[in-house]
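Section 3.1 - Work completed
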Amino acid sequence: MKTFPFHYHEFICKNVELLWRFIDAYPLALITRYMSNGFITSHIPLFQGVDKMLFGHTDRRNPMVNDLVSFEAHIVFMGPSSYIPPEAYKNRQLPTWNYTAVHMDASIDIIVESSMNLNILLETSERLATSKDSFRPDKEDPRVVKNLPGILGLKVVPKYIEGRFKLSQDKPFVDHESAMQWLLDNNPSEFDSLIKSLING
């Protein structure tokens, strides 16, 4: 089922390098699949692999994947957002809500082979490791042996991608800047450079 993304042109970004940076910073994806009985959604972290493909994994009990076939999906990665009150601006402006997100249409292949899924678990843990002592799955670990059959890997092939970065670009530049500063002040500082890049992207 094809989706028809809508947004005002001022807020759309198609800078591919910037969009992938955003996904790396905010990998938790909201995946939506249309099935015969309606829409089903799941929150699943996805990570950039080779050739601009993404990988992840989910529980075999997830009804989104229980037919074990490839499927089409709409995916959203959400980043910082904030209510922007009138006092955030230099001039008189009405309040709004600013946000950052990347939308993607993709084909998702379900991976059933245990050896491939173990590799996905290993790569996922490497991406999320904060030190050399961080958890890494061990194929001999009884917990891993027990749970691996219940895991299905995901290979995500993007078909369309765009950023939707609503940062008061429709306001005078001084208000655009002050609204972004408000957003930065209300989100983790480690993402300052990324958020600022969204303006210049």
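Second construct:
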Amino acid sequence: MTQAVTNDCIQTIERIVLEAGKLALSHFHKLSTVPVEAKGHLDLVTAADKEVEAFVTQALVAAFPEDGVFGEEGAARPGRSGRTWVIDPIDGTFNFVRGGDQWAILIGLYEGGVPTFGVIHVPLRKQTLLGGKGIPSTLNGAAIAQRKGMKPGQASCGVGFHPMVPVDQRLETLRFVLEEAQMSFRCCGSAALSMIEVALGQVDGYLGMGESSWDVMGPVPILEQIGIQTTLDWTQFDLNDKLRFACGTPEFLKAVAPIVPFGTTLDLK
């Protein structure tokens, strides 16, 4: 049984994510001195990722001592409440390192086997989105409009690939989007920023190939409140799985169903 996310809880999470944004920006403004490591080819982690995750973890533990915490950079604190806060300290680290503005801090609440509440904070764009079960989705406090439909002559989607996805799978995905679905596409290097574009109606949907739970745990509850659906079947996933999924209007999901069936994880064969 899920617990209600109270107004006090929302205010606490907003405060934490905004403070985390300030910490990330302090690193961003001195990029030339920020240590950068490679987790894999084109898969980077910085001191900023680690410090932001440590800060958010400490703040969440202090605010919600009964809850668990799970983070991209190793945070793993078991809880007693059945609730787990999932952290992506910087979604779009490659963009961060290159000096771009397409990166965000994500916090999502995982409860009862599904994401129920999420926050996305984009420091350089001064955008904060939040929403979830029983909580209207907002952007900087203003309600986000419901999304539906898709105009075939203007159809567009975001596309994201984890660096481990083989080139042939990437090319097949783009071929399908362009040739069979007959859509334009955007690839910005951040699942969160791409899903914000879905939320604001700038694209009809998003195809994520190789995303992690922390990439989507914050955005999904926000999108669900405004009519955006996903192919994610949380009963089939572990928090460490790489996901292959689509999110968008019902019309978008129907159009991409041949390439992203419901409830699939990433197949690297």
